[in-house]
């Protein structure tokens, strides 16, 4: 039976090859809607997503965080749980219950899928992605005493919890900012193992090249410092 409380938000940029299969494979009996946020694609991403059954929202302002923010703001009024996942086919929609069940049961506010703890298809994550996840997992442990192993895109959060975070990041640092602010706001957070497959379409905007990886890493580091500094000022 469709749950009117659950919406899936998929930020997408030039992922026409993968988005249709992803949308069709959603566990539709568990969700009310799948929103694909077309973040300025120059291919047929929007059309393919709509044909597969998604509600397409156009967000011309580029940025992963901007697309996530726009998607979250577009969910139906009855939505109380928002799931985020990538549109490249690397996340497994069938594993969505692993993320939403602890929230539906009232045990957690925020559940993060960890690719490093789950089964990874060979070649699904680059060395730079694994290194960045481990590095920032260490930083989060030092600062907040939590054992997060990943900043993966597959995650679920209560709508009220997301509103409490007052998210600001418009780019690749969205996931890290969400985890840091969740600690600051004392949300109940759980990390669960999830699978990671090789992408079936599109080109990574973070790890597709050395230059993209360096740019993303520097941006994520700047987010870590900004959010940490903001916490320090708020605690004075």
Overview of the molecule:
By secondary structure, the protein is an alpha/beta fold. The chain is 41% helix and 15% strand. It contains 8 helices and 7 strands; from the N terminus they run βαβαβαβαβαβααβα. The protein has helices spanning 16-24, 45-52, 64-73, 96-104, 127-144, 159-165, 174-184, 210-234; strands spanning 6-12, 33-38, 55-58, 81-84, 110-114, 155-158, 189-193. A 7-stranded mixed β-sheet has the order 3-2-1-4-6-5-7, with helices on both faces. Strand 2 (33-38), helix 2 (45-52) and strand 3 (55-58) form a beta-alpha-beta unit. Helix 1 packs parallel to helix 2 and helix 7 (174-184) packs parallel to helix 8. The protein is globular and about 45 Å long. The mean pLDDT is 89.
Measured distance between first and last alpha carbons? 49 Å
In this structure, how is the largest beta sheet organized?
Answer: 7 strands, mixed
**Strand proportion:** 5-15%
Mean pLDDT comes to 89
> From the helix content, strand content and strand pairing, which structural class follows?
alpha/beta
**Fraction of residues in helix:** 40-55%
Tally of DSSP helical segments: 8
Number of strands: 7
What spatial order of strands do you see in the largest sheet? 3-2-1-4-6-5-7
Order of helices and strands: EHEHEHEHEHEHHEH
Q: Runs with pLDDT <50, length 5+?
A: none
Please state the overall shape, judged from the principal axes of the Cα atoms. globular
Question: Radius of gyration from the CA trace?
Answer: 17 Å
């Amino acid at each position: 039976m469709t749950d009117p409380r659950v919406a899936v938000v998929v930020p997408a940029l030039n992922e026409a090859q993968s988005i249709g299969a992803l949308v069709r494979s959603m566990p539709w009996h568990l969700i009310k809607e799948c929103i694909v946020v077309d973040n300025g694609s120059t291919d047929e991403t929007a059309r393919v997503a709509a044909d597969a059954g998604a509600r397409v929202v156009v967000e011309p302002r580029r940025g992963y965080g901007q697309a996530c923010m726009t998607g979250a703001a577009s969910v139906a009024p009855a939505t109380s749980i928002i799931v985020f996942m990538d549109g490249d086919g690397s996340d497994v929609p069938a594993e969505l219950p692993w993320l939403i069940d602890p929230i539906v049961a009232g045990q957690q506010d925020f559940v993060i899928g960890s690719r490093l703890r789950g089964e990874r298809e060979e070649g699904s994550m680059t060395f730079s992605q694994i290194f960045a996840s481990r590095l920032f997992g260490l930083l989060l442990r030092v600062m907040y005493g939590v054992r997060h192993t990943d900043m993966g895109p597959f995650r679920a959060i209560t709508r009220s919890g997301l509103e409490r975070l007052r998210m600001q990041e418009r780019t690749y640092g969205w996931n890290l900012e969400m985890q840091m602010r969740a600690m600051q706001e004392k949300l109940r957070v759980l990390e669960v193992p999830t699978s990671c497959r090789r992408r079936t379409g599109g080109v990574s905007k973070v790890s597709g090249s050395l230059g993209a990886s360096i740019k993303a890493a520097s941006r994520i580091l700047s987010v870590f410092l900004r959010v940490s500094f903001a916490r320090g000022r708020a605690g004075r």
